[in-house]
Amino acid sequence: MSREDEKNSINMLEEGIYISPKFEKDLLPEFELSREFFEEIYSMPGGEKVKECIQCGTCSGSCPSSYLMDHSPRQIFAMIRAGMRKEVLESNTMWYCTSCYYCYVRCPAGIKITDVMYALKRFALKDKDMKVPDNRPVRFMECFSAMVKRYGRNCEAIFTILYYLSTNPFRMLKHAVMGIKLFIRGRMPLIPKKIKGADDVKKLMEYVEEMER
Amino acid sequence: MIKYAYYPGCSLESTNKAYDISFRAIMYHLGIAMKDIDDWNCCGATAYISVSENMAFTVSARNLAIAEKSGATDVIAPCAACYLTLRKAHEYMMEYPEIYAQVNSALNKIGLSYEGTIKVKSPLEVIIDDVGLDKVRIAVTNPLKGLKVACYYGCQLVRPRHVFDDPEEPVKFEELMKTIGADPVYFPFRVRCCGSSTILTYEQQALRMSKNVLLSAKREGADIIATACPLCQINLDAYQRRIEKEFKIKLNMPVVFFSQLVGLALNYKYKEMALDKSIVSPKKVLEPYLHSQEEVKEGK
Question: What does the pLDDT look like over B10-60, one tens digit per residue?
């Protein structure tokens, strides 16, 4: 620590804040933090509990995929409250959530963690400035919603083929043997059934889309 | 009027027909009438809620509204993901008036509305709580004595709410298996996640999670895994060969639906319960219980 740094630190101490120069580079300037982000999460149904997070880490410990995440669920809650909008929405954390609800039932503060993860996915998709780290889950949802809009139901075989075509067609070859095995056993019907009310379902979906725009 | 409306869900129509066939058969055998929801649509699973909450609730609510209109009070959703999605739509609509209003305004566009009188139930809940284990015990004619069954609950059947059973230490599935004469095996991963739909997006992660479940059941000496979720069945059964190759282990663990085992105990045939649809064949494990059936047939 140089003499000048030391002097600065002492000045800050007098002002009541002390940040070691070692960590100063990790700090985000205030203009990059967003108070509105916390408000957004806070105002969703069940979101008011986020305020009550005690940072115990039960969620991260219970999560089967936290080892793959950029930031563990506990860190995400701290980041939400600090207003680190960009860092949260561009992380891969929510995309690795398998909706197993383990954290949800264990959280001592009663935060609906899985629902918050869904909300983070929605915010990340809605904000065009945010870079989604991996487009596979996005393609997954697009193919799914295209199927339901058209037929009213999801035909798993066609959906899977559509999904692989839109991401990595070569991966389909890996699954060819399994697909044939399923097909032989009559578990892979290739002709999707269209329901009578398919138009109704489409109308519903379009109405909601219109409403949210 | 029929009390139960049946919501099969997309995967019971295609990849998991076995669950549909066997569950309908045992309900018929136990004397429970149920009627399919007329022209039901996909519940949206976990895909819609990640795009728009209202979309997810509205699409699910169409099914609930149709069931309500037909006069049913309970909806049976065999698929664990459908079960949770439908129940969640109902609960959120009841808890938050603004969601209730929004969903109903969308439903009104197609001439429907949802009051909120429906209870969503899983098949295990109906058989264990509504029908009762005593009734099942009387109906069993081919008890599966000595069959070591690992009861795999998975996630969405018991979580997030404490409705059907305890979210972390459930017991009811095991009780049902005891009732049909089988020997339930406790294994630590019985309420852990199999990876569900991440098998398509993050395959390695899902394979690893499924491997843990299979290995855990194997270590506790289980002959067969029984489950109540179509996604779990696909992940554990169809991907089992890949898991064996990937992690260089030997598993050969058949994975079937609980309803198929119950059906077998009610003296249905192997093929009638669609047990031949599993990729890892359960024939060898179930041989002792099929043999007695053959004898009966020859005796006639």
Answer: 999 888 999 999 999 999 999 999 999 999 999 988 888 888 888 899 999
Q: How far is A200 from chain B (nearest CA, A)?
A: 6
N-to-C CA span, chain B: 39
Residue pair B235/B194 in contact by the 8 Å Cβ criterion? yes
Residue at which a domain ends, from B121, B148, B183: B121
- This prediction has a pTM of 0.89
To test the contact with chain A by mutation, choose from B14, B88, B162 the residue with the greatest count of A C-beta atoms within 10 A, namely B14
Residue range of the domain that includes B63: 4-121
Q: How far is B196 from chain A (nearest CA, A)?
A: 7
If we measure between CA atoms, which residue out of A212, A104, A211, A159 comes closest to residue B193? A104
Query: Angle at Cα A19 formed by Cα A16 and Cα A25, nearest 5°?
Result: 145
Residue A19 gets the label, from left (phi > 0), alpha (psi -120 to 50) or beta, of beta
Which homologous superfamily is A27-126 in? Answer: Alpha-helical ferredoxin (1.10.1060.10)
User: Looking at the structure, do residues B156 and B269 belong to the same domain, yes or no?
Assistant: yes
